[in-house]
Amino acid sequence: MPAASSLVRAEIRATVALAAPLAGANLAQMTMGLTNAVMVGHLGGGSLAAAGLGAGLYFTLVMICQGVLVAVAPLAAHAIGADDHPAAARIAGAGMLLALLLALPVFGLLTMAPQLLVLLGYEKTLAAQIADFLSAIRWGSPAFMIFVVLRAMLSAASRVRPIVVVLLCGVPANAALNWALVFGHLGLPAWGIVGSGCSTAIVQWLMALGLAGYMLVLPAGPRLRFGPRRRAELRRIIRVGLPISGLLALEVGVFNGTGVLMGLLGADALGAHQLAMNFASLTFMVPLGIAQAATVRVAYELGRGAHAAARRAGFVALALGGGAMLVPCVLMLAFPLRIAGIYLDLADPANHGAAVIAAQLLAIAALFQVFDGLQVIAVGALRGFRDTALPMLIAAFGYWGAGFAASWVLAFPFGYGPAGLWWGLALGLGVVALLLSLRLHYRSRVAYAGGPLAEAQPLPG
After folding, report:
1. How far apart are CA 233 and CA 237, in angstroms?
2. What is the 8-class DSSP label of residue 192?
3. In the predicted model, what is the mean pLDDT of residues 36-43?
4. From its phi and psi, is residue 409 left (phi > 0), alpha (psi between -120 and 50) or beta?
5. Would residue 179 be called left, alpha or beta, if left means φ above 0 and alpha means ψ between -120 and 50 degrees?
6. How high is the mean pLDDT of the chain?
7. Which position among 144, 196, 290, 345 has the lowest Cβ density within 10 Å, counted as fewest Cβ atoms?
8. Residue 218 domain-assigned (yes or no)
């Protein structure tokens, strides 16, 4: 039997081979959002606010639905590990049907959202601009859902290169379409923020069609199958995916809620919060990629019946993520003002208050990032074990019962202001990271009991 060290090295190679391109794909998706913001920003603050709020509504809805659909990855990877490729194809086919079903309520909610904003007290002019943006971008929601399922299936089959290629092609395509449709170049009309919404929708359809085309032309690639057992497969996806969606909603909610509280502390505090969150989100793409790889690696080894290898895959991913997050941790501690200077003109006295607060938040984010990386990787590994309900409850307790409550207490009754809000977030993420890591230890030990030892195996393809 191979030595333990060689098994760990083999698992590191298998995980990195899967995680690196997935992290790159995540960064490419973030780049497209940044491109949209930069383009629309040239139209003025009002347009940027409307497009920003509209994009926030759109991506909040589709991301919550994405949580259900990503269950395709662990379920399909488990089937592939068991060498049951027809089952994996049925799972992907059921996921595609579910994607189209979920797109319908998303489209409807995006259509009604502007009227709801008016009822909440938004200015009619701003609500009208948001309505214009949503009227364009909503047409991309079916493509977004389809892309999520195809990406999940290709990840389960370890075919991650086409995902990266499609997203890397999407970045310049999105920039070019924004440039043409927002400002009216190449003989096209200048549609402003509507053009940005159209650009996003078009690119999402192009990316979905790109992955679909790859799966159709690849002779031995993963397939979709719409068989008679689709109801059973739909139930499996929903059973595993709904708690994932719930966890995402809890996480998005606590960060959005903290942003609302930050706004009560003034414009400088809110600007610093957005700056620090943006930088932290960029570095978060690395552990997110490792988490996505951990889901597939754990599920695949479980499908092979190699429970020891599945446990090892989870903890190797956790160690890789913790190590990877040390780099941004050191950068944030050593150069907080230089990082703030990427976003703000530090020579302008008007930016002094925001820069000082941002430097404080970035220093706290150094700790925040390590916890955030560990918790998302633990969640990813647990998804490989199809353990999603308890992690959602842990997230509810950690994010809201510990983190959000501590944020409010530290910021307002104790008077620590913006730093207090972020120390509360760090506490919440630390609690979630610890509890999820313990859950991974327990869940993988239970799976390991009586399971065969096995060498780490890369996925086929």
Report:
1. 6
2. T
3. 76
4. alpha
5. alpha
6. 86
7. 345
8. yes
At 264 the pLDDT is 83
* Joined tokens for residue 73: 């990855």
Q: What value does the CA radius of gyration of the chain take, rounded to a whole number of Å?
A: 22
What range does the domain containing 11 cover? 4-448
Outline where DSSP puts E strands in 32-157. none
Q: Is residue 24 part of a domain?
A: yes
In a domain, 459, yes or no: no
The pLDDT value given to residue 361: 92
What's the mean pLDDT in 208-223?
78
Q: What is the pTM of this model?
A: 0.86
DSSP state of 268: H
Return d(Cα 52, Cα 204) in angstroms, integer.
18
Mapped onto helix, strand or coil, the DSSP state of residue 43 is coil
Cα separation, 456 vs 459, whole angstroms:
10
Provide, rounded to the nearest whole percent, the portion of the chain with pLDDT above 90. Answer: 40
Q: How many folded domains does the chain comprise? A: 1
Cβ atoms within 10 Å, residue 190: 13
**What is the number of other CB atoms lying within 10 angstroms of the CB of residue 231?**
10
- Residue 295's contacts (CB-CB under 8 Å, 6 or more residues apart) are 70, 73, 74, 77, 380, 381, 383, 384
Q: How many CB atoms lie within 10 A of CB 444?
A: 26
Write down the pLDDT at residue 453. Answer: 47
CA 312 to chain CA centroid, nearest Å: 24
> How far from the centroid of its chain's Cα atoms is residue 449's Cα?
33
Whether the predicted pLDDT of 228 surpasses 70 = no
Report the pLDDT value the prediction gives residue 270, as an integer from 0 to 100. 79
Measured from the Cβ of residue 445, the count of other Cβ atoms closer than 10 Å reads 11
Question: For residues 266 and 275, what is the distance between their CA atoms, to the nearest angstrom?
Answer: 14
Contacts of residue 315, defined as CB under 8 A and 6 or more positions apart, other chains included, come to 381, 440, 444
More confident call, 293 vs 220:
293
Rounded to the nearest 5 percent, the helix, strand and coil shares of the chain are 85, 0, 15
Q: Which two tokens stand for residue 288?
A: 């997110």
Tell me how far apart the alpha carbons of residues 275 and 236 are, in angstroms, rounded to a whole number.
Answer: 40
Q: pLDDT band for position 71 (50/70/90)?
A: very high
> Residue 276, Cβ neighbours under 10 Å: how many?
27
Instruction: Give the pLDDT score at 35.
Output: 81
- Angle (nearest 5°) at CA 282 between 163 and 197: 65
Instruction: Determine, yes or no, domain membership for 408.
Output: yes
Query: Strand, coil or helix: what is 348?
Result: coil
